[in-house]
């Protein structure tokens, strides 16, 4: 199957997935413009579209729009994806088309012969300055997602006339232009620490709307994805254009809606004000800014992203995520061999498969004021090292995991005393020690080398199965005294973290990694390429989690969503919720337990063990099935099976509770409830639905249930 076609006469490319097409063409002045992004087109149809009025015409006074990669220069008044200054003071670029290449990769999985990844590269050179630009478009088998990125090269050597650095002021990965619609709605996520992933749906203003992080990490406050529709899409219906950036540092996506009705979004790494120097011979490569068009509502858009992330982003999407126990909420910084062994033995009885020792196990770490950077077991808590605990955890039949925060140092640590110059800092400026810690400059090879050596030694010595990789503070006063190109650290740090993770994984094939940044502060397609799960939020209150998980699920799949059951009342919110409710909400993701099991009653422990066993039965469907979001329920569907997790929230007396109509079942089939044995008609599950009280037994606030359906044989 041809995923990319080219028409030389029209200089038009057509990129197609199963459910969408994107057509782009070069105009007379070699400017690359979008012709179409939306439902599938044939090449003939795309050519007809290019011959007619273009989707986003623009005029020289309104600003030229519809460009695939608008750069500063000429009569352009919109926001450029590329802004730069040459050594002679001139700004911008004027491209000449050089050529293109279409590369077909090898099949990524068995049975995918003939349906292979495909990459189109379109190349340009500036008409005067020694600069070249490659625009990349990658399509993957069985994915609706188009991955775009850009590479800029300074092609002269130092001895030549222009052999001087170019200053890059902004270099986004791509600009996506939408078709003209009567109106536009914008969906995105905002939040904060312990309130990540709050879904926002608003009308898109006629303005420039900036979604961004200036924190050096992806951030709790905004996550680098968005969805745009015509304002009328629902969970189940309507066209949705969505984009997501694969970057774990500062980022910026600007959505422009011009007064003449053109909408585009340009996005990439970095934030305003950062300037990097591109030296002769150097190149600069952006991360991927991916986009997809889907026609089946926000739910359909989410499922397409989930599939793409599972098939093409995550390193080990095929593996079932283990049920884990994490010590943080139970013992805080006060971890000892003895209290961890107690927790481990209780956790094992519940059916936990992976025991993760959280913060506090190293150096002089007894609170957040000391020890970060000293990655050797604390003599006080673990006089014989971690060996005895690791051995006990394994004897109990569990894998062993460890919390680390390799990018950080407490000023009160041996590492800082030895290497005070290893941190991000600026001359004559005070460092703000947020959470009493400073950020290590991982872009320096000696610092990255140290971090690798320490982590590698730990993983090897204790045969660590799992690292919870934390990052608890944003960058501030981020500089490199004496460095000629200090702003590069914002980019290099991210590359260094990704590279460190990749190297550890390559050297330790059994190692799995959980991304964490004070909860969900670093979740994105970039970090997920090197990790297996993400700690969704430090907020483990099951009621709050419903909203957080709803927002998370807009882009990221359930198998990556770490979700723990913790104590009641919840230590953060003080809210008391039933154990089953806490479990059921967490069972919609990768289940973990984070409560102080030493305080749980025998009845609670027995109930918890049953719920863990129940989770293991539904786990393949939850973690690997397609997810459908309903009001007060999530449903996962895989093959013959479907799992529904439903809950009841307080409603005033007299307000009717609508039945739960399921999705994606065969109306002609019958489905048996695996727990009760009850047989349901598929057609009725889809139309009449399940009554909250009579069918689901949801008879009080915070009651909840799991229904596991299997299609009956014919
Ligand atoms: C962050 C994490 C928590 C825990 C603490 C330890 O806040 O999100 O889960 O690991 O750090 O200090």
Largest sheet composition: 10 strands, antiparallel
Q: How many β-strand runs?
A: 37
Structural class: alpha+beta
Averaged pLDDT, please? 95
Q: Estimate what percentage of residues fall within beta strands.
A: 25-35%
Distinct small-molecule ligands in the complex = alpha-D-galactopyranose
Q: pLDDT below 50 for ≥5 consecutive residues: which ranges?
A: 55-64
The 3D shape can be described as globular
Count of runs of 4 or more consecutive helical residues:
13
Key phrases:
alpha+beta, 10-stranded antiparallel β-sheet, 13 helices
Plain-language structure description:
This protein has 714 residues and is of the alpha+beta class. The radius of gyration is 26 Å and the shape is globular. Strand 8 and strand 9 form a beta hairpin. Helix content is 21%, strand content 28%. Bound molecules: alpha-D-galactopyranose (GLA). Alpha-D-galactopyranose binds next to loops.
